[in-house]
Write a sequence for this structure.
């Protein structure tokens, strides 16, 4: 398994991932990156509750939020333990003008990256995260022509697109782009642009 995957998620995909992860384990919480250093860190049960573009997926090893907050302060904030965590970087929506003058909506990739050196707890979290991803997303992210939606190459390895984002991509004015490149992706079999 890879240590990180590029993700194309809409808010509904984030909610689906959250629910799937929490169904696997009630000890999983989501922590807002901007508030992670706070003594009174807020633990969320849904990624959509995190307001910034960056959050952590954390296995607190307890479903009691009070104990989990104490564990966060002791193990993570003060870096005195070996925490099982993943980074979640949110996908972003923007627009771009194509060479033909049409403006399209872009869903820029996010990322899920596993943290740590691969302890037993970290491997267990990685297994749950990747299993959840396989239930709410597909790996069929294909480079396409933005104007014709014709396939331009092989699927983008290490990427997942949430099922809600798949439906979003069926509109010819909606397309995916990896945040680190200008290559555009889509689902050529889902819809051809006019």
């Amino acid at each position: 398994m890879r240590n990180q995957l590029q993700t194309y998620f809409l808010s509904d995909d984030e909610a689906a991932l959250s629910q799937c992860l929490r169904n696997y384990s009630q000890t999983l919480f989501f922590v807002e990156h901007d508030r992670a250093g706070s003594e009174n860190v807020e633990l969320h049960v849904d990624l959509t509750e995190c307001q910034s573009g960056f959050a952590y997926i954390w296995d607190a090893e307890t479903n009691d939020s009070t104990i989990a907050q104490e564990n966060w302060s002791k193990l993570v904030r003060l870096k005195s333990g070996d925490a099982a965590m993943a980074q979640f970087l949110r996908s972003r929506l923007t627009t771009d003008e194509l060479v033909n003058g049409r403006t399209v909506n872009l869903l820029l990739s996010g990322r899920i990256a596993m943290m740590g050196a691969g302890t037993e707890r970290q491997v267990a979290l990685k297994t749950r995260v990747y299993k959840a991803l396989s239930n709410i997303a597909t790996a069929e992210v294909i480079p396409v022509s933005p104007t014709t939606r014709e396939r331009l190459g092989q699927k983008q390895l290490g990427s997942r697109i949430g099922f809600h984002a798949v439906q979003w991509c069926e509109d010819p004015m909606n397309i995916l782009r990896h945040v680190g490149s200008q290559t555009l992706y889509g689902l050529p079999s889902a819809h051809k642009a006019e």
Observations:
- Residues 120-136 form the longest helix (17 residues).
- DSSP finds four helices and 13 strands in the chain.
